[in-house]
Amino acid sequence: xxxxxxNILIVDDDIHILELLQRHLQSMDYHTFKAISVKEALFILxxxxxxxLITDIRMPDVNGLQLLQFVSEHYPEIPKLVVxxxxxxxxxxxxxxxxxxxxxxxxxxxxxxxxxxxKTFANAAQDQKQKPVSQNIQTNDYADMxxxxxxxxxxxxxxxxxxxxxxxxxxKGESGTGKELVARAIHYSGKFSRAPFIAVNCGAIPExxxxxELFGYKKGAFTGANENRSGxxxxxxxxxxFLDEIGTASLTVQTKLLRALQEKEITKVGSQKVEKxxxxxxxxxxxxxxxxxxxKTFRExxxxxxxxVEINVPPLRERKSDIPLLVKKFLRKYGEEYKDxxxxxxxxxxxxxxxxxxxxxxxxxxxIIQRTVIMSDGLIDVKDLPDFLKxxxxxxxxxxxxxxxxxxEYVRRILIHTKGNKTKAAEILQIDRKTLRNKLS
Length: 441
Known about the structure:
Rossmann fold, alpha/beta, phosphoprotein, ATP-binding, elongated, nucleotide-binding, 4 domains, DNA-binding, about 45% helix
């Protein structure tokens, strides 16, 4: 049974180079596909099993370096070879950094092409055998949080300073950065850790129920109040009450919160009796409370009572050096939960995770790792990651070209189709060879 010929995709905006490469490679018994632009190359890659990519670097609209990066992340198994007419030390560095195994300078001989293609295939096979896998990532844990960045250290330093007192703390940060984890770390790493920790999402409680849920109510206070009931403040007695999304609290609740902070006392709905409370309040928000104050939806006096200590949790894009530690944590967590085994991640896949900007922060990262663990078998590689994480090529909007330029572009495509046969191209275009030459000049 004959072995399958290797499929080689050649990308170059120079028709003559395309034809030369195709002739040489076909004489070496390779099967070739040609593209005169990155856009055409992507269509071929989508529908064809390609064993080697050979591309030029300098091309209009989208260059070869962008193509190399795209292929490195979407088709990491395809080895890449660059053929360029502009060799330089910096250029070679950029080429290798973009994922190419080697590059060949124009002009070149058939022998040089044959040698470097064979070398590229051989190196690719060797690299596949020796593919590195990240598995010895040193984790720095702190109360279920992990990180080693300067930004993470700043948060931990703040936690250490407040964990053993009951000063009011406000935790600020984007959604998904781990504000509740910070609140729990303050409580459970300090001397009040044996007391209750009660977490309340103010945004999840309807406005008309916020007061009764937080402060409790007296029997007969309203229809359906058939018994006395304590609220979250009483449940957190001696410990910590964590008020998430504090910016969504109603103005009525804000007034009672201010009194609770100032006087350390609350009053149940429907009662005249004042009750003393001994709790620490930690609030959290991803909203701009100062803007809310301007809009008169948040009390200024309450804001300053809440911000005795302010902890700002940085977004994940500002602490990317912590991503390997977080990935290791989530791989261990979901590997044990779903597959009862240890999962690992390749360096290439980890590199993609480190480059992404993570608008959803740690919550989004955890979701991605959870999903990939479910859908893979022991090793998380580039192919297991969602495409939106990987490098995407953005093509510029096509300009309106003069009719002559449009005509010339169409003639070039016909020549690609006819493999450079000008007689066949002229027949398709229903013109003579002289007219064809004029249209290309």
